[in-house]
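Quick one, T. Sequence first:
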Amino acid sequence: MTMRKLPDLDQITSFLAVAEELNFRKAAERLGLDQSAVSRRVKDLETRLGFQLLFRTTHAVRLTDAGRTFYEDCAKLLDRLGSSVEAARRIADGRQGTLRVAYMTFAAIDLLPRAVAAYGQLNPGVAPVLAYQNTQLQKLSLARGEIDVGLMLGPFSHTDFETLEISREGPVALVAEASPLAAHGTLTVADIAQAPLVMGNDQQWDYYRRLVEDMLAAHGHRPAYAFEASSLTGILGLVRHGLGITIVPEVMGRFRPQGLVACPIRDADCSILTVAAWRRPASRMVNDFVKVLRQIAKGAGGQGQSVPVTP
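Structure tokens:
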């Protein structure tokens, strides 16, 4: 049976009421309709289906064998339809579903866990699905509709997307505790240029590498890359063993592992931006997550502390 020939919902609900009451008058009262309207709907349903659903006499109504099977299946169908409507309503209201969030390396240190924890309090029925992606890949994923929110390095501007600047931090150098540079307290860009640099590889860290290279170029220097690694863990391990230094945002200096010293770069005239981006128009789930991010961006709770949530 094609969609065009399927019975409509009014016909089915009228038939279900009659099948349960086995009385047209009681079924009509239950539905708040005239008895003639209910009778007409059931007759039209039988005509559309091409077989009889009810045996009717002047004193009784009973289901045919076909009618009994049709009733049982339709009752299940309407129960399922009701559940589907409620599930869709919870998703539309932002109370249930999945929220796909991509994040770059530095967002995972403090921003992401704080945001996810606060969002879980606001919407416990929504399951965040988290995926590491570098900044460039996040932009592609947003364009393809593969993620809902991206936590990336900025700036980022596009007419199809909303953006929120979450933090603007200066760069710091991480050096091994045993390194002579650790005793300086602060460093200059020239100090950075003369030291062996440990950095993420160009495949995973291309956008961030350009930021570091631009910082050095502004002072007439080029980076002296000693080692490259694909992950922050690998970078920090190399630096901790004295094989070079690395440049990270201030947040990494606050959450650095043991054995490393964070040295501010006093003449660095650049900032490292962390932004959130999402497609217009935003769903209720996305808007609630952005609400949490705005609270973090305003400094609510302080770095590394929980974020107060306002429903």
